[in-house]
Amino acid sequence: KLNEDVGDDAEGYRRWQLRQKAHNQLKPPTREAADEAYEPKPVESQLEEAPVVKEEAILRFGETGNFEPSARKISSKPGENGAAVKLPSNERMKAEITINEFGFNMVASDKVAMDRVIPDTRHKECRFWHYPESQPSASVILVFHNEGFSTLVRTIHSVVNTSPPELLKEVVLVDDFSDKRHLKTELEQYVEKEFGDLVKLYRNSQREGLIRTRSHGAELATGDVIVFLDAHCECNRNWLVPLLDEIRKDRTTMAVPIVDGIDFNTMAYTPVYGADSHFSGIFEWGFFYKEKLVPQRELNKRKHMSEPYRSPTHAGGLFAMDRKYFHELGGYDPGLKIWGGENYELSFKIWQCGGSVKWVPCSRVGHIYRNHMPYGFGKDNDPFMSPIHVNYMRVVEVWMEDEFKEYFYTREPSFRGYPIGNITKQLQFKKEHNCKSFRWFMENIAYDVYEEYPKPPPNKAWGEIRKSGSSLCWESGSGQPGHTVGIMSCHGAGHGQLFRLNVQGQIGTGERCIDSQSGGILHVIVCAREPSGPWEWDKGSGMIRHKELNKCVDIGTDHKLHLKSCDNKLSSMKWEFKEVFPW
Ligand code: UD2
Ligand code: MN
Fold first, then answer.
1. Angle, nearest 10°, between helix axes 185-195 and 149-162?
2. Does 250 score more than 90 pLDDT?
3. How many CB atoms lie within 10 A of CB 382?
4. Quick check: helix, strand or coil at residue 145?
5. C-alpha to C-alpha distance for 169 and 154, rounded to whole angstroms
6. Ligand 1 mean position to 214 CA, how many Å?
7. What is the pLDDT of residue 494?
8. Which-ligand-closest: CA of 102?
9. What fold characterizes domain 460-578?
10. pLDDT digits (tens, 9 = 90+) for 402-427
């Protein structure tokens, strides 16, 4: 149980210590040790010699040091304390319609209080950090495109309710050319009435996508620090101050809160990670964003479990940065389209050009993970090359050296050569600021990426796998693990018909791999950590052989791919790879 309240008393603290030990994590500090280590020590004689003592946050047990908004009791309203909202069956149909429209259940959201209490998901230590009073001021920026009403305004309420008023300079809303009626005058009037000048609403005159809209918001903001959140979040206890404190200590730090989950259907608030396990943001070589347990080596750099730690990257939506530093870095690459990859662009740029990215365990913010993306990409849409991939390529071409670019193009060979627009400005920035290499980044910051995603061996062959002389191709369907591999007419559009055979005998499709499972039918599987596999393709005979089982791939009467005894006279066992560039 993560939120089980152990209380502030000595007994509760002891129980908490025992549980900590059981988790086999870092030893928690004893109350005495913590007090001793952090008891302010400047005696007068020392003060004369060193008049400027840099203020430090202090962990002092017994007395909570956090900003506490006026206490609100848990009410009997739906969703209180982060509970799931249960809908009567007659509202289910309407709920489904809203899920389809917004990616989350607006019927459920509409029932939840604007200031509902959510469970405190932080590490137990967090309540006892005392942060210096003088902190930079913050502009919280929310960009939105066709969001639901109650989820959007609950985000604003939550920011305002949970932030110390003297530190929250403003909330900047930027509407990315929404066309929903409830986001026009209804929103303007609501915001004006509830928040007055504190909340500012700006609108784009055309669809820009979330990345350019955020840059726009950063230009409009006036606080010392800019904090970005998605327009469907709820902030947890004292979330803002620990972020600001990292930036106060070092203005080149990007401070990232830990993201809790809010269920798209029930609005239930639950932590994705327990308070004792620390994760950080990484990537695989096709640039799908991943999270991974932080290596002990990083955790050991800190004294306390609840202290911030370094992370290679972040999920994208929620973070704080010094406003001027953001602009000094050139903000986001303006060539990035609509959605995706901007998290890598910014974090690689920060790390390689002298800053750092830190995740802050005492700052937790809930985010509704949608069940699908409810909006299209507007004029940036290209049915044969997703703008997300173009974004990845811009990042790869600017921030990586050849060796690392090659890993990306090994994973996505059909992207090679796609025109990505002009990147001279980005390259010039990198040069002028003497930014470090990607190799440096991989060796010093993202070294544990290799544990999950070793360098991919080169491809021996890739493309559609066609039955020789026919227009029938291997097809992995959704590409989800467990899906069988079948045979279909070749469509040339890539997706589930793109396969790669590497020199280690592994056949991959997207981020997944292919193996045979019991019954000898080919399936999509989660790739083994070591990039090796059982496959061998003989170009001459066309046969694809499973070396361990000594069987070859054949077409079954069920239109699936089966392993059968190898027979080079069978035309259904002859395969050729045909490279395709769908764009
Ligand atoms: C994740 C991030 C998101 C962003 C994205 C990659 C989290 C929790 N979320 O996707 O912030 O980094 O990855 O780019 O880390 N929006 C616009 N214009 C658009 C599309 C979206 O303003 O054209 C707004 C949208 O209303 C929302 C925000 O941008 O407030 C993020 O969009 P999302 O919630 O659809 O992205 P998400 O959470 O799937
Ligand atoms: Mn989101």
1. 20
2. yes
3. 14
4. coil
5. 18
6. 10
7. 93
8. 1
9. Trefoil (Acidic Fibroblast Growth Factor, subunit A) (2.80.10)
10. 999 999 999 999 999 999 999 999 99
Angle between helix 424-432 and 387-399 (nearest 10): 30
Please give the Cα distance from 240 to 226 (Å, whole number).
11
Residue from 210, 258, 357, 380 whose mutation best tests the ligand 1 pocket (most atoms within 8 A of CB):
210
**Residues surrounding ion ligand 2 at CB below 5 Å:** 230
Evaluate if residue 22 carries a pLDDT over 50: no
Decide: 553 and 563 in contact? Cβ < 8 Å.
yes
Q: What ligand has the least distance to the C-alpha of 228?
A: 1
The secondary structure of residue 25, as a DSSP letter, is -
d(CA 112, CA 107): 9
What one-letter code names the amino acid at 565?
A: S
Q: What amino acid occupies position 116?
A: R
Find where tokens 């908004």 sit: 69
Strands 309-310 and 459-467: unpaired
Q: What is the pLDDT of residue 4?
A: 38
Q: Which residue is it, tokens 């990859």? A: 341
The percent of residues above 90 in pLDDT, for the chain, comes to 85
Query: Which band of pLDDT confidence, cut at 50, 70 and 90, is reported for residue 18?
Result: low
Indicate if ligand 1 lies below 6 Å from the C-beta of 259: yes
Tokens 């993306």 correspond to what residue?
Answer: 373
Domain ranges of the chain: 79-368, 460-578
Q: Is the CB of 346 under 6 A from ligand 1?
A: no
Q: What are phi and psi of 87, to 5 degrees?
A: -100, 140
CA separation for the pair 439, 445 (Å, rounded): 10
Mean pLDDT, rounded, of the chain: 91
Note whether 383 and 279 are within 8 A (CB). no
Residue 319 CB–ligand 1 contact under 6 Å? no
Enter the tokens of residue 134: 């003088």
Q: What is the pLDDT of residue 42?
A: 41
CA angle, corner 152, sides to 140 and 373, nearest 5?
Answer: 105
CATH number for the domain whose boundaries are 79-368: 3.90.550.10
